[in-house]
Amino acid sequence: MALQRNLFRACYLYRQTCIPCCHESTAAQNTARKDASKKTEVKFNWKDGLNLENLLKEEEIIVRDQFRAYCQEKLMPRILHANRNEVFHPEIMKEMGEIGVLGPTIKGYGCAGVSSVAYGLIAREVERVDSSYRSAMSVQSSLVMYPIDAYGTEEQKQKYLPPLARGELIGCFGLTEPNHGSDPSSMETKARYNAATKTYILNGTKSWITNSPIADVFIVWAKTDVDNKIRGFILEKGMKGLTAPKIEGKFSLRASITGQISMEDVKVPKENILPNAVGLGGPFGCLNNARYGIAWGSLGAAEFCLETARQYALDRQQFQRPLAKNQLIQKKLADMLTEISIGLQACHQVGRLKDEGFATPEMISMIKRNSCGKALEIARLARDILGGNGISDEYHVIRHVMNLEAVNTYEGTHDIHALILGRAITGLQAFTTDN
User: Fold this and answer.
1) Which of 223, 285, 394, 411 is the most buried (most CB within 10 A)?
2) Does domain 7-165 have CATH number 1.10.10.10?
3) How many CB atoms lie within 10 A of CB 130?
4) Annotated catalytic residue 411
5) Which fold is adopted by the domain 282-426?
6) For residue range 352-374, what is the model confidence (pLDDT) as tens digits?
């Protein structure tokens, strides 16, 4: 299959031909929809339990459908081998770049400039195949391209964003350290400024970093010696003292390459600092973007598990009847559908608020926590419905179970997001013993 038409081009054509008249036709469409509902019986569609489709804009549907075709035709045939052999194929990044789904919400610099809901739909489709591929895409988009766009200089944007958008450069994000995961404020990575050479000297180690062994661009967060504030730095592959060894032996996200970032007296030019990010607000802003995509993506994995479990229950005969005819099976399927449908509506609402400037970090914590926790439960239920076959990777469900164990933990654990919400509810923070 030839790669799908570039989303940037598709969206541009849509905006030129459709948007000028869409405001005039919206009222007519709504009236027609109401009239149609009166004339015809409205039937429940279990694949879209709360009619998310009706809330999507035409451009968002175009983006989703094009990327779904790519994911099913190009990524799905790769995943079994990739997961079994713990390999990531870097050419996937160029394919995604050609389609236009890297940094898709960024305006300009070769990016598609689509809505946050469209980005969520992209994450949902790729994670329907595997969380590993969504991780690679969302790190590039939310944790590498976003901070350059949000906190960088115009020179940095011009230099890095276009090749990152094309997938010609691969990026990674270094915040987590061997001794500091949920508590990044205690990071040990230091940046010492040398006034004579106008460089920062970075020393430290980052761990569990997606894409790091194959990265060309590294967004690294470190404490400066000047004010002990956390700052973001752009490092490049080949800098002396910079290494990124691969972490082997993962039983989750096996089709995503993960490693460390080791820095020993790495000299970083002063112009490579992200000037508009000071303190934890910088990396947390990136993480909120990534968490938003994860909330959508994990539900894509859950949808795959529901569809697989449903079909298996219909096909599998036990005691002279389909498994699906048992009340316990139907109850499990009903629970799965309910959580997916409600979760997607919540993600859609936050996406709309995000584009309007009204989304808060607490909202994103809520949907990340809900989607990931419920998706993991759904994957486990699907595995249970498949019985012994559920542990075979040929059915793919056990792979989603293993992946979602990690997805439920990274970008803020289930419990950390509960504490973020608890702080908002009570006005009291429970992260430390400090008042």
Assistant:
1) 411
2) no
3) 29
4) yes
5) Butyryl-CoA Dehydrogenase, subunit A; domain 3 (1.20.140)
6) 999 999 999 999 999 999 999 99
